[in-house]
Amino acid sequence: MAVLFRTHASAATGLGHLMRCLALAQTLDANHCEVVFALKAEAKSLALGRHDWVGRIIVLPDELDEQQELDYLQHLPEWPQLSAVVLDGYGFSEHYRADLQRIAPLVAIFDDANLDMALHADVIINGSDGADSGYYHTYASQARLCLGRAYRVLRREFEVLPEIPFVRRHTLTLMLGGSDVLNLTLPLLQALETQGADMPIRVITGAAYGHLAALQDWLSQTQLTIQHIHDCQQMADMMIHSRLAVTAAGGTQFELLACATPAILLVVADNQRAATAAASQQGWCISQDVVAGANPAELAARVLALWQDDKQLEVMHQHAAALADRQGAQRVVQCLFEQMEQQRCS
């Protein structure tokens, strides 16, 4: 049994799609499935920087248009052995998805964009509490739906976590995405310093972060107590020791929830709004929409005010601990296996 993943990762788009595909791939691998990724060259470079990577990588030529890419995939030696293709990314057109479903044995799609168009998938995966089953019944009427918190896929490092009492968490953690698409890390740190921050700060930058030299130069001069980790490979350990995290919304918010870590979620892309709004209503995080831009001084003031509110942080932690569920990837894999069997028998 083999599963092919087709997804994107780059300095421009970040690492979110690649990371959730990796999470599902790890669980498939643990269930004795062969895993193959079809990636562009930049995404391959980012993938192989991971110590927890699983799966072979096929590099797709950059110059292929959509139809050429589908032809390329269909002529891979691995194609006849595939049981499913998993698609994750916003750059795949409806035409591409329709043709992929026509030629693939089964198509599973990670979706959180709600594009009001046919999805052409056999399985839909959307771990957001805001996932709308009515929408999917309209635009993927025949698909099996893996919706809501029970189907959040997390990498294997989050499956079994030690319990760290909240009183032993002392760090403010800033992690603004694999590429920090709005370049907020350094301006926020500068604003925190200006406003007198004195807590231990951990700054995590992703493999696709494009402002590393400027950040390192500033860190060499600041008086703040800062640990900087670039391309962190132990995110679960970082999160369970954090008293408060400031993060770009997206898949990271589900990891923070699994670690019962209070958070300020920054909406940096339109498609993140629904999931982030649903998370905010659960009481373990607060959100701020920065798609149109952020005021670092105002954001720093908000961070410092929440940091100083011991009671609210404790309540947020308790809400997160009550909601944490780390078995979503296994449930998705079970759904995929059942759908594969159903389609083989039909």
Name a few traits of the molecule.
Rossmann fold; UDP-2,4-diacetamido-2,4, 6-trideoxy-beta-L-altropyranose hydrolase; 2 domains; six-stranded parallel sheet; hydrolase; seven-stranded parallel sheet; alpha/beta; 346 residues; 19% strand
Note down, in words, how this protein is organized.
- There is one protein chain.
- This protein is an alpha/beta fold.
- It has 2 domains: 174 residues, Rossmann fold; 163 residues, 3-Layer(aba) Sandwich (Rossmann fold), CATH 3.40.50.
- The chain is 38% helix and 19% strand.
- The protein is built from 13 helices and 13 strands.
- The strands form 2 sheets. A 7-stranded parallel β-sheet has the order 3-2-1-4-5-6-7. Strands 10-9-8-11-12-13 form a 6-stranded parallel β-sheet.
- Helix 1 packs across helix 13 and helix 6 packs across helix 11.
